[in-house]
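To the wet lab folks,

You asked to see what we're planning to order before we commit. Fair enough. Below is the target structure as tokens, and below that is the sequence we designed to fit it. If anything looks off to you, flag it before the synthesis order goes out.
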């Protein structure tokens, strides 16, 4: 939580500085300088790279929370019958819902729930950083993806407020909406990247290369898992298909974060290369003889 508070403080400082620069009339110039500075994203917390790190951390928190819950489970946790939501059940007992009847008892449910909450907060912070970085860089195609991703993080928090044992209906509805929002996020991202490549020929600020087909494939598997769970009901491994639908998205968030981080690193290297080239050009111009000196060179010898 201290890391999240520190990051929030840095973001607030960034907003205050930007507002002060805009009041002084130096906003656009400062933005151009920031875009070309090699320190603009290497040392600036408001960047796509930082958002990528937060997304990777988000996925890692979910995985850690689930692994600890499974290890602390009383009895035998069934990957095919028990839902991933059972790990956040607030008390031990028999659960009855549309997925069937099963036993749920995770003594570390508070830890698992805390990890899920931190994961959702990390996604929301990543979405906020993506919006701020897009505003600074002028990347309008980022807004749709980042806002949908932030909504998905908010829905993650909702699922922890309404647990599967106390509010099963609300929990299931929030999970369904979460799936729809995540699929929409992936669709908007891929569509934006495709149109960006067709119109500009450059990589999209959020995704590039093999990450585009990977996103398509993982979205397909998630949809297939959700549809199989919906139509098969409680008879055919509900826990397994729910995991396919949800855990595939968790893995994609990590992959997406890694792509953001690596793409940001490539952008940093490109900025550094441009800055070094400009330094070399300025150095060459400063050491070259002036036009006036060249104009008088050899004239006296020719006159003689």
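Sequence we intend to order:
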């Amino acid at each position: 939580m201290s890391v999240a508070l520190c990051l929030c403080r840095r973001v607030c400082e960034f907003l205050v500085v930007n507002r002060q620069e805009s009041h002084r009339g130096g906003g656009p110039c400062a933005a151009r300088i920031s875009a070309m500075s090699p320190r603009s994203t290497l040392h600036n917390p408001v960047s796509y790279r930082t958002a990528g790190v937060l997304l990777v951390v988000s996925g890692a928190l979910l995985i850690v929370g689930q692994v600890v819950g499974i290890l602390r489970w009383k009895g035998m946790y069934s990957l095919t019958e028990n839902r991933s939501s059972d790990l956040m059940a607030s008390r031990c007992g028999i659960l009855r819902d549309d997925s069937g009847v099963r036993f749920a008892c995770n003594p570390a449910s508070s830890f698992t729930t805390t990890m899920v909450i931190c994961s959702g907060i990390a996604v929301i912070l990543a979405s906020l950083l993506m919006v701020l970085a897009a505003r600074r860089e002028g990347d309008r195609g980022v807004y749709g993806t980042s806002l949908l991703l932030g909504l998905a993080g908010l829905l993650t928090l909702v699922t922890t407020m309404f647990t599967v044992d106390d509010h099963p209906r609300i929990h299931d509805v929030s999970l369904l909406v979460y799936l729809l929002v995540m699929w929409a996020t992936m669709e908007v991202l891929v569509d934006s990247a495709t149109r960006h490549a067709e119109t500009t020929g450059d990589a999209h600020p959020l995704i590039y290369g093999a990450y585009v087909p990977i996103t398509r494939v993982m979205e397909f598997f998630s949809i297939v898992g959700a549809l199989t769970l919906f139509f098969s009901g409680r008879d055919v491994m509900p826990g397994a298909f729910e995991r396919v639908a949800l855990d595939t998205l968790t893995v994609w968030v990590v992959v997406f974060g890694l792509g953001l981080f690596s793409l940001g690193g490539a952008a940093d290297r490109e900025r550094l290369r441009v800055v070094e080239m400009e330094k070399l050009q300025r150095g060459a111009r400063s050491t070259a003889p002036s036009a006036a000196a060249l104009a008088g060179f050899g004239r006296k010898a020719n006159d003689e």
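Structural context that might help your review: The first strand starts at residue 93 and ends at 97. The mean pLDDT is 77.

Thanks,
Computational group
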